[in-house]
Every structure is written in C-alpha cells, then in structure tokens.
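Appendix B, record 7
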Amino acid sequence: MELLIRNYQPTDAKAMLEIYNWAVLHTTATYDYEEMDLVSFEAQIGAKIGLNYPVIVAEIAEKVVAYAALGQFRVKEGYRFTAENSVYVSPQHQGKNIGRQLLQTLIKLAKENGNIKNIIAVIDAESEVSVRLHQQLGFEQAGHFPRIGYKFGRWLDVKFLQLGW
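Structure tokens (predicted):
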C-alpha cells in the first residue's frame, strides 16, 4: 500500500489523538501521564498552525497512521528561529520508515519556511531508535540531561539533538 504524506486537515485530529494517547499510555515518547481529550488536542494543533508551523500526516489507504509537527521550542522571542519537532507513529506501523519520511518532510518544510534556522528534538535518552533516526538525518547531540523526567515510576534522562543550517 502506498504512503501519502500531506498537510493536516481538521478531520485528522481524532486519528492523530488515538496515536498520541497510545504513546502517552505505553511509551516515554511523551512525558504526559494522562490521555488528552480531543478539544485540547485540536487546540494544541491549532496553536502550531496559527504560528505557521507545519503539521503533517502519513496516510495509508485513507487512514492516518502517523503524524509529525514543528512547534515553538521556547516562548521567548529570541528563540523564534528555532523549532521543536514531534513525530508519532501508530504501533502497528512502527519500523516501516514512516517516521523517517515524516521527519525528512518536516526538515524540508522548515528549510523552505525561511525563518526556521534550527530544529531541536527532545528525546527520551532510552529511545535509541529515535535518537539514531535523528542522527542519521544530520541531527547532532547538543545536550544530555540526567534524571529530569519522571514516568512509569522511574527517573528518565533526556537528550537534546539539534539540526541547524
């Protein structure tokens, strides 16, 4: 089946939320503890789009199987040229290079944007697949913060990876 990467449409939010909430409950890809509701999730997406950040989805057979976005790295104006990326893939579609294709598309869109000069990936240090993917696409480790996250009853390290141009 063919993979289609396209811009977010409001009708995608529910499928995206299911992917995100699965990650909340089963992974350290996000340090949220509680599932998000649809209204909050749509507001979060709307905030990204309102600031002209890309939100994209990967679709197979007209079903959203993954999504990715850029968003504000930090609120202060001096950080406005730096974005933070997020990539989430449904558990049934992990390991199929969908995340790679989404991240490659985000990088291309960021470079075309003209205002973005850096992308920061904030990754759980134990997520070797995510760290490796980012490194393969040119990201370099910019920081390692021990024991700054807490989830599933244990302390977690976080890595910052950076891609700049």
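Remarks on this record: The helical segments are 13-26, 38-50, 98-113, 128-136. The chain has one domain: 3-164.
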